[in-house]
Amino acid sequence: MPNSSEIRRLSAKWSSGTGWPKRLESLRISGLRGWTGQQFKLGYPIMAVVGENGSGKSTVIQCAAAVYRSTAPKTFYKGRGYASDYFPKTYWDKILGAEIGYTIRTGEQQFTDTIRRPGTKWRGNMTRQDRPIVYIDLSRIQPVPARTGYWRIAKSPHKELSAQMFDKSRLERFSQIMGRDYDLTKMAITDIDKTREVPVLGYHAKVYSGFHTGAGETMIAELLKADMPKYSLVLIDEVETSLHPRAQRRLVRDLAERCRELELQIVLTTHSPFILDELPHEARAHIIETLAGRTIVYGVTPEFSMTKMDDVPQYECDIYVEDKRSQILLTEILVAHARPELILSCRVIMCGLASVGQALGMMVHQRRFPRPSCVFLDGDQAQSTGCVNLPGEDAPERVVFEALKQKDWLSVGQRVGRNHAALSDACSAAMLLQNHHDWINHAATTLVLGGDILWQALCAEWATNCLTEENAKKITQTVEDALIGIPLKVVPKRPIAMDVSTSPIDPSGNPLLFEL
Description:
By secondary structure, this protein is an alpha/beta fold. Helices cover 35% and strands 22% of the residues. The protein has four domains: 5-132 and 228-284, 3-Layer(aba) Sandwich (Rossmann fold), CATH 3.40.50; 141-224, no CATH class; 311-391 and 467-502, Rossmann fold, CATH 3.40.50; 396-465, no CATH class.
């Protein structure tokens, strides 16, 4: 879906190059929880880290917390804020040779340093720079009655001694995120325990404490209760926990507004497609655990991330394409020219930008995926290692439209239930638009059709009557070879950077996913 106005405002300020005088630019992690020197880059003021459980998401934000000496109130971070607070040595965990390399920017100056544990102690703590660190871990999701010391409050006669009322702005933010108009929100202190705050909400003239409110309400109330210092590094583990999808989206928009106004850097971990969908491509980083170790892929789609974390239904082969148009085109090629059992054994996945496809192609070439995989790039992309280009040497829309126009659109009108003349006029008029990405929607709107319906009909007609057997075989043979383990041999036309950690990001892309 299109980015919200708050995300667009944040992107505009970030791209202007002004603001954010304190920046964490990258981390390089070795010797901790299976990390072997991979670099995590922060290319946007909000970074969402996604991946399966155990892939290393929490390790990223804990390392980020450890590379600064925090000037925020101590309630905002763990222990003393040292690496040893996040990565303690235990009977079962022997930490030796660990290193957290980091690059930060303060004003116009860039600094590179390390925190390391070559022996029995962590080194490098004294050279860390100051910055407010706000670390919000999973302890926030525990229900109030289950928290240590709170049951005593509920079981004893008690009164409210004092309360920190949410001001008008904070109450409006709380109501906006939760999607309900609250009368009041406050953090109360009882006469039983002056150290433990109890969230209290007012809704429709009724008052509820944290002992009776929902987990999502409690979590957001505690998240909003304190101001985040300007220029803070804010780290949130599993940001979507206890929130329904609309609340997740609203929370991201609220964080984007705070991020822009206070010039915060926010790193959050998530498993939610709704969180990812609210953020632009350059804000998404997926940690993939392969047989060869961890790989970080930037600029992925929410659908790609969800596919990598879900095995239901189970397919024999994963096929990656750039966007929805390419996915439908490839599907229709397979339907027209491949065996039915081949089609049913494959899952066609939208991966996003061409740079993501190039990175995945290198992983295919290196046999780093646990099951058969192949990557198809659009025809207007340069050949890349591990990838095959779709037919036509041009963008899919241009290839299909131009071929069908030469054949007077064949039977596309019958496929979509429209008069041939109307179909011909609509598609021909659409081709006059300068941007080929607009052709489908323009023609579909004229014909009162859904864009996907028209594009699928065009692709089906083209694959059946325009695509040569030779070009069709290149596609089907690639999939068949992947299934039987024959490696792809592709020689790039020109050198292309294949380092996944440095893959270029194009924030203008807005791909979707269609699965076979």
